[in-house]
Amino acid sequence: MISEKKKRVPIIEEDKTKSYFKYYDKEMAQAPREKYAQVLKGPVDTKKALKFKDRNDLFKPGVISQVN
Questions:
Q1: In whole angstroms, what is the distance from residue 62 CA to residue 35 CA?
Q2: Which of 15, 25, 28, 47 sits between 20 and 30 A of 64, alpha carbons compared?
Q3: Using CA atoms, how far apart are residues 9 and 15, in angstroms rounded to an integer?
Q4: CA pair distance 37, 19, nearest whole angstrom
């Protein structure tokens, strides 16, 4: 899954004229394998998830376990 080459979305001429096209045309960096393993575990338990009203806590120093 991680090492296989994915097909790219076809590019039309109109896309090439856009200012951000240079970013679109780059190869994506591979994420570390442990991140794939985390994603494949499934969603975070909603009881542990950050509540919307506490969203600014993301800017506080320290580690929030669901973000890792």
A1: 20
A2: 28
A3: 11
A4: 35
Helix (H, G, I), strand (E, B) or coil at 9: coil
pTM value is: 0.39
> Which residue segment(s) compose the domain that 67 sits in?
31-68
Looking at the domain assignment, is residue 18 inside a domain?
Answer: no
- What whole-number distance in Å separates Cα of residue 24 and Cα of residue 16? 9
Residue-level pLDDT, tens digit, the chain, 68 residues = 455 567 778 889 999 999 999 888 788 888 899 888 888 988 888 888 888 998 888 888 875 655 55
The tokens of 66 are what? 């669901």
**How many CB atoms within 10 Å of residue 15?**
13
Length of the chain: 68
Does 56 reside within a domain?
yes
